[in-house]
Design brief:
This protein is mostly helical. The chain has a single domain, classed as Orthogonal Bundle (Hypothetical protein af1432), CATH 1.10.3210.10. Helix content is about 60%, strand content about 0%. The chain has a two-stranded antiparallel sheet. It binds magnesium ion.
Length: about 350
């Protein structure tokens, strides 16, 4: 018996009957021989961690554009915090931690530079539309590649969890047909929200965009006064509210979490000091998109001819870090000083 088979056997013995053991995976688009030491989901987690798109997350905006302060979150630290929270919940519910971690590490790979501002612009300029969750799936299925071919060839369950992590309104997914097929995927979807609600408020306090006294009082009374207390209350509320095949939150905690989320969308994200830079970033990306259609770069010309030039241009723009986009824009549109 290989170590991987022993690990699979342990999953069968110890995980919840509602969990997704690696041996029950629906498999990969291109079948591969199993590894002796790692389960299919462990391999997926490792493939995502070693992908170039994962490393680029460190220079992509979470909320604050290209922050100079070292303590503000980036898309990478958001991803790591979401993965830690999701693993805690998965472990407590006896779900598959490896599958949970793989989905969490991959969920935001398709995010554009400049956060949701980039997503809004690409969705406007590109006819078929742009949704970051779908772009994350495109990154792992097509844009990243290994020596075996295009894409990371991940398991069905990891791809499904990445595709279905976005929730629209609220913390919990309201529509059944938009949920991930595994409980692990549904846990990531909620923990993504727990992570961003907690750390975006923490960053907004650090930036003095809001004061602690601005936070909705009833929500703070339920969730706690500090970031760590609030994460803990939400995580415990999620663990205690979930049962059998239902991932849910204790109602009082859910209400308080949704109220903090509404506060972020109503009072923090639209605030003038964030928005001033966001509208510049939007104009920059829009200009770059139309410039690239007329002057495609080598990256765009080399990309798969199966895709339209517009599609390849969107892929190129979405892949950029904030700084890469700023540098390219400056090279194309700003006059350079004369180098003596
Ligand atoms: Mg996220």
């Amino acid at each position: 018996m290989t170590l991987r088979e022993q690990l699979e056997e342990r999953e069968r013995r110890t995980l919840s009957p509602h969990a997704t053991p690696a041996c029950s995976s629906r498999g990969r688009a291109r079948p591969e021989a199993e590894h002796d030491y790692r389960t299919a989901f462990q391999r997926d987690r490792d493939r995502i961690l070693h992908a170039k798109a994962f490393r680029r997350l460190k220079r992509k905006t979470q909320v604050f554009l290209a922050p100079e302060g070292d303590h503000y979150r980036t898309r990478l630290t958001h991803t790591l915090e979401a993965a830690q929270i999701a693993r805690t919940v998965a472990r407590a519910l006896f779900l598959n931690e490896d599958l949970t971690e793989a989905i969490a590490l991959g969920h935001d790979l398709g995010h554009t530079p400049f956060g949701h501002a980039g997503e809004v612009v690409l969705n406007e300029v590109y006819g078929p539309g742009f949704i970051h969750a779908e772009q994350s799936l495109r990154v792992v299925e097509r844009l990243e590649s290994t020596r075996r071919g295009p894409g990371l060839n991940l398991t069905y369950e990891v791809c499904d969890g990445i595709r279905h992590h976005s929730k629209g309104e609220g913390v919990l997914m309201s529509r059944d047909d938009e949920r991930a097929c595994t409980l692990e995927g549904r846990v990531v979807s909620v923990c993504d929200a727990i992570a961003y609600i907690s750390h975006d408020i923490d960053d907004a306090l650090r930036a003095r965009i809001i004061l602690p006294s601005d936070l909705p009082k009833t929500a703070v009374a339920v969730l706690g006064d500090t970031t760590s207390e609030r994460i803990n209350t939400m995580v415990v509320g999620l663990i205690e509210g979930s049962k059998d095949r239902v991932i849910a939150m204790v109602p009082e905690v859910l209400d308080a979490t949704n109220s903090l989320r509404s506060f972020l969308y109503g009072c923090v994200y639209p605030c003038a000091s964030i928005n001033k830079e966001i509208s510049k970033a939007k104009r920059l990306l829009r200009d770059m998109y139309f410039h690239l259609l007329d002057h495609p770069t080598d990256e765009i010309l080399r990309a798969s001819a199966e895709d339209s030039v517009e599609r390849r241009t969107v892929d190129f723009l979405a892949s950029m870090t904030d700084q890469y986009a700023l540098n390219l824009y400056a090279r194309w549109f700003l006059p350079a000083g004369w180098q003596v």
